[in-house]
Specification:
The structure holds two protein chains of two kinds.
Chain A (H helix, E strand, L loop, with lengths): L3 H8 L3 H34 L4 E6 L7 E2 L2 H6 L4 E7 L5 E2 L9 E4 L1 H7 L3 E2 L2 H9 L3 E5 H7 L6 E5 L11 E11 L11 E4 H7 L6 E2 L1 E6 L5 H11 L7 E5 H10 L4 H30 L1 H10 L3 H32 L15 H28 L2 H6 L3
Parallel strand pairs in A: 5-10, 7-9
Antiparallel strand pairs in A: 1-12, 1-13, 2-11, 3-12, 4-8, 6-9, 7-10, 8-9
Chain B lengths: L10 E14 L2 E14 L3 E5 L6 H8 L7 E6 L2 E2 L5 H11 E4 L11 H6 L9 H14 L15 H13 L5 E5 L7 H17 L3 E6 L2 H4 L4 E6 L2 E2 L6
Parallel strand pairs in B: 3-8, 3-9, 6-7, 7-8
Antiparallel strand pairs in B: 1-2, 1-4, 4-5, 9-10
The chains are: A alpha+beta, B alpha/beta.
Chain lengths: ~375, ~240
Amino acid sequence: MKYFALVWSSLKRKKTRTILTLLSIFIAFLLYGLLCAVKEAFTAGVTMAGANRLIVRHKVSLIMSLPVSYKGRMESIPGVDTVAHFTWFNGIYQNEPKNFFGNFPCELEPFLKIYPEYVLPEDQKKAFLAQRNAALVGRSLLNRFKWKIGDRISLVSPIWPNKSGGAWDFDIVGILDAAKNKKNTDTSGFYFRYDYFDEGRTIGTGMVTWYAVSVKDPDKAESIAKAIDEEFANSPYETKAEPEGAFMQGFAKQIGDIGAILVGILSAVFFTILLVAGNTMSQSVRERIEELGVLKAMGFTNERVLGLVLAESCLLTCVGGLIGLAAAWAFTSQGSPVPQMLPVFYLPVRYLGIGVGIVFALGIVAGIVPALQAMRLEIAVALRKNG
Amino acid sequence: MSQPTTSNNNLLVDVDNVEKVFHRGSEEIHVLSNLNLKVPKGEFLALMGPSGSGKSTLLNLIGGLDRPTKGTVSIAGDKIDQLSNKALAAWRARHVGFVFQLYNLMPTLTAERNVELPLLLTHLSKAERKKHVETALGIVGLGHRMKHYPRTMSGGEQQRVGIARAIVTDPTLLLCDEPTGDLDRKAGDGVLDLLQALNREHGKTIIMVTHDPHASARASRTVHLDKGQLGNEPVK
């Protein structure tokens, strides 16, 4: 710590240059944090996928339906624990497509059993079961539209017209929250009763879009998926069962390999920042050859001078980088700026940790060449620069 | 060559048969040749000579900033040319204070932080370092300018801060390379008064490189260096 004033003072030598370099590093790490949050948003489904869960859909496409009667047949397959079905409702709120959010008719008991990452108070569960047009709303969706329990929500579905010819009306009776230690749970969904939906729709009665199946032994998930597909082979509605993680990954990859794209962007950003920080450090060392010579004349060893220059480089990247990471964390903590597109939006701690590691690595790599130059500097030569 | 009569006990600097050769491409430049110099403790020695005569090179060898091509340099019995780089750095920190022509202060540090720099290499606490810094700046008459940056000080004041930095560790030897070379006569006299006081009142052994006969007149002995050889100069 006693060298801090010396290291810090070196950064104050050319304030404009230091501020511009700090800003560059700040922006790079802010970008890093935001892109990590975007990556998390795209892959949250994969991350939170349960090892004991399978997704069963129509073999041809997700847009094709499966009979609701498959539920009982799947439950009878050995190793299957619980089966829940979901249907893509595609309800539009206030006739405004930008208000998009996922909304699904479902059966509450198997849904909550298969997805324990959601918690629902007992009284709200009872209210849902007691009222035919009851709806449960995820916490982030509730916050997005500033809804509250008791509000009536009308949705129009272009896929499923209502027998009355108008909108589907729902009363919010409960809020789905993420369970403790399940921060990355997507709480942007809107769920309502399947029986209300099935009786109200004009077409497709008795059909669902996909099934979620929990298995008793995750190690047997693959063989159970195969057994499910075999059960419905050669039927009019053949199935494709796969682990939930693989299903989510396939879903995300429809957009592209988000991870590879982001790694590419960040690599370019950090390489540029490395050049910026490295150039700043090189200039900084070149400008004070005599001062480094004086330090060595005083008794600073070559290794100590190397350490001072590296410390200066790390301090430069730490100030810019850590503030950038903090700003990214603060920004993502406010929730998604585009909840209709990225319902899950936060910066996981592991990416913060990696970011801190990159901050120090960047400092060392940017500073190592000038630090070695400073270390190898001969005192007599350094002092002659001015003399 | 002028050598004062000294007993071994009183001898501080012993430059013995030293040669220094620099290489410029395939060319060899003999800067110092078979040079011998003895400096007793407590002496204020002025080293004079024309540009390129090897004054600063000799000062660098005595201060352990460079190594001789041949011969030995002993300070208080330590053959410093045989020390490792690390040991030599530690030796410099303990035994030598340097004063430079252009002061060589860190422009981004206050006077007290500049003076504190050599103390960072010691095990002194922050409070102890502060006390030493106050003492050193007090000796050079700048106790009231501790928080000032070099850019706000005159050349003479900056050189005083440089002297305070050189003496703050209470070194055995003070090496000054043209300490008044960048100052006007009045400020230069102030610095010379200070060096003289350090020599007479605090017993510091001082070797000062200078071009200026007015400055060398303040020394207790003057030696001339020409083409890498010491010339004769009567002892005062």
